[in-house]
Write a structure and sequence with these properties.
Layout (H helix, E strand, L loop, with lengths): L5 E12 L38 H13 L3 E2 L2 E2 L1 E5 L9 E5 L5 E7 L6 E11 L3 E3 L13 E3 L6 E7 L6 H18 L11 E11 L9 E6 L2 H20 L7 E6 L4 E7 L9 E2 L6 E2 L2 H9 L5 H12 L3 H7 L3 H13 L4 H19 L16 H12 L5 H17 L7 H7 L8 H14 L1 H8 L6 H11 L6 H14 L3
Parallel strand pairs: 12-13
Antiparallel strand pairs: 1-10, 1-11, 2-6, 3-16, 4-5, 4-15, 6-7, 7-10, 8-9, 11-12, 13-14
Helix pairs in contact: 2-3, 5-6, 7-8, 7-9, 9-10, 12-14, 12-15, 14-15
Bound molecules: adenosine-5'-diphosphate (ADP), zinc ion (ZN) and magnesium ion (MG).
């Protein structure tokens, strides 16, 4: 069979760290970045005789995320012990959910592809600690590992897709789309560097058209969207090469070496853990009142796909603009606040936000404000609207408007209290358009008088030279002459000129 006769089958298991004040079974703070082993207690260190107490806020966050993903939240779910021995797991088991998960049967509409990904199940569990193979600060530790238990007991929601993804691009789209849901719902801070989102990718190949699943390899612990895509691409190539040689894919767990860009075997099916799951005896079944689930459902914010459709419909934006604006809830908030201040210009404002605002934030830093708080932006949305209105009414040329806005942005980055008046700044910078017809006529006559050769050519039929004269007037006016008046003034001056 040829390479094109195979299709990839991919399922993702994503561990999302839920945003809560405290851990899932104890009162320790759920926080990243503290000194190692300072956010720990007898419960999350697994001391004998301690008992877990379920954190209600963690459950609510799990329900919220499950509902946002369209899943059915079960009124009753069961915690289970997943037993294995590892240095980062002081109890010797992880409290998770197994055959009775919190929620099932969700779906996530992708952003870049026109389809939804099915989600099989979503379950609550606790995170393990973290092994460090380098000294804090980066020194070598030959033959030694350190362990930080701060992360033990961090609440996680594991989200498992059906094997319904078909490419590395779709997998990356899924993760980015999921990330948008996390930030929109406030269920996780979604910070990849801090491990808030970790992914295992299951990959197999099968003949195109086959309904039977091939043997899969599972690549563990991918902590960036790019690594997920690269690991999947590598697996597809590796498995295709095996199949092409008439060999079989063996079922195994692999790791991704990001420096070399390859996956490597970790353990085979024979070495697979037997987790000996059994119901957690120290926690009762999790029983949810319907009213609690309903209240969380009723309070869900507008989700990215709904907002995309609404922005397109309400403001006449195309799919690309709607996608860019909803990539971050705060960006869409900023845009909508600007449109509220200047309702006649939804498309111009979309262009400004997706081009200028994003570029300035990237180049100079600064913020666009938190959710529903575009007034706290480096340059508030209302000020963007004022600037665009000055361009719209001809006070500023487009390029002068951009200079004014960029200057505002830079000044506000340097000094959060810097003045926010685009009209005053345009005057200060000498950027206000000149619409004085006499002044423009004078510049036009000067341009004509100074360039007799071009005048003759123009008169001789080379009418394209009007562009040259416009350039001369713009130069003389330092870009301030109103373009709509310059053309007319030049025609008059050229007609009047003596050849
Ligand atoms: P396991 O028992 O190995 O944990 P599961 O059936 O629980 O496997 O599935 C774990 C993940 O692997 C899910 O995301 C699922 O969609 C995916 N998956 C299962 N079988 C395959 C396969 N043959 N190819 C690709 N992905 C698969
Ligand atoms: Zn604790
Ligand atoms: Mg499984």
């Amino acid at each position: 069979m040829a390479r094109s006769d195979y299709e990839a089958v991919i399922g993702l298991e994503v561990h999302v760290q839920l945003k809560t004040e405290t851990k899932i079974f104890c009162n320790c703070p759920n926080r990243f970045g503290a000194q190692p082993n300072t956010l720990v207690c007898a419960v999350c260190l697994g001391y004998p005789g301690t008992l877990p107490v379920l954190n209600r806020a963690a459950v609510d966050q799990g329900i919220r995320l499950a509902l946002a993903l369209g899943a059915t939240v079960h009124r009753r779910s069961i915690f289970a012990r997943k037993n294995y021995f590892y240095a980062d797991l002081p109890k010797g088991y992880q409290i998770s959910q197994f055959d009775r998960p919190l929620a099932e049967n969700g779906r996530l509409p992708l952003t870049q592809h026109d389809r939804e990904v099915e989600i099989e199940r979503l379950h609550l569990e606790e995170d393990a600690g973290k092994l460090l193979h380098e000294a804090p600060g980066g020194g070598q530790l030959p033959g030694t590992s350190l362990v930080d238990y701060n992360r033990c007991g961090t609440p996680l929601l594991e989200i498992v897709t059906t094997p319904s993804l078909r490419s590395a691009e779709e997998a990356q789209d899924y993760l980015q789309s999921l990330h948008q849901v996390l930030t929109t719902t406030g269920t996780s801070d979604g910070n990849m560097e801090e491990g808030s989102l970790r992914c295992d990718a299951n990959v197999s190949m099968r003949p195109v058209g086959s309904a039977v699943l091939g043997t899969k390899a599972e690549v563990k612990n991918l902590n960036s969207f790019r690594f997920v895509a690269r690991a999947i691409e590598y697996e597809i190539e590796r498995q295709c090469a095996l199949l092409d040689r008439g060999e079989r894919v063996v079922q195994e767990t692999r790791t991704f070496d990001s420096e070399r860009g390859v996956t490597q075997p970790l353990r085979s099916k024979e070495e697979a853990h037997d987790y000996r799951y059994f119901p957690e005896p120290d926690l009762p079944p999790l029983v949810l009142a319907a009213a609690r689930v309903d209240a969380i459902a009723a309070a869900l914010p507008e989700l990215p796909w709904t907002r995309r459709a609404r922005l397109a419909a309400d403001y006449g934006l195309d799919a690309d603009d709607a996608r860019l604006l909803t990539a971050e809830p705060a960006l869409a908030d900023y845009y909508e606040a600007a449109v509220a201040a200047l309702p006649a210009q939804p498309q111009a404002l979309a262009n400004w936000v997706t081009n200028d605002v994003l570029k300035l934030r990237k180049e100079h830093g600064g913020a666009i404000g938190g959710a529903e708080d575009s007034a706290s932006a480096t340059v508030p949305a209302a000020t963007l609207a004022q600037t665009v209105a000055l361009v719209d009414d001809g006070t500023l040329s487009t390029s002068a408007g951009k200079t004014v806005f960029e200057t505002l942005w830079q000044r506000r980055c340097a000094d959060a209290d810097a003045a926010l008046d685009p009209a005053a700044l345009a005057a200060e910078l000498g950027l206000v358009q000149v619409r004085d017809a006499d002044q423009i006529a004078a510049w036009a006559r000067e341009a004509v008088a100074a360039n007799p050769k071009q005048v003759a050519q123009y008169r001789g039929g080379k009418t394209k030279l009007i562009g040259f004269f416009v350039g001369q007037v713009m130069r003389a006016s330092r870009g301030r002459a109103a373009p709509d008046l310059v053309q007319a003034a030049l025609r008059d001056a050229l007609d009047a000129a003596e050849v």
